[in-house]
Amino acid sequence: MNNDLIDDAQALLGGRMGASGATRRLALKAAMGVGYAAAAHPLMAQTAIKTPSTGLVSGEVTIDVNGFKMPAYRSAPAGQTSLPVVLVISEIFGVHEYIADVTRRLAQAGYMAIAPELFVRQGDAGAYGEIAKLQAEVIAKVPDAQVMADLDATVAWAAANGGDTRKLAVTGFCWGGRITWLYAAHQPQVKAGVAWYGRLVGQATAQTPSHPLALVGHLKAPVLGLYGGADTGIPLDTVDKMKAELAQGPAAAKASAFVVYPEAPHAFHADYRPSFRKAAAEDGWQRLLAWLKSHDVA
Question: What pTM does this model have?
Answer without folding.
Answer: 0.88
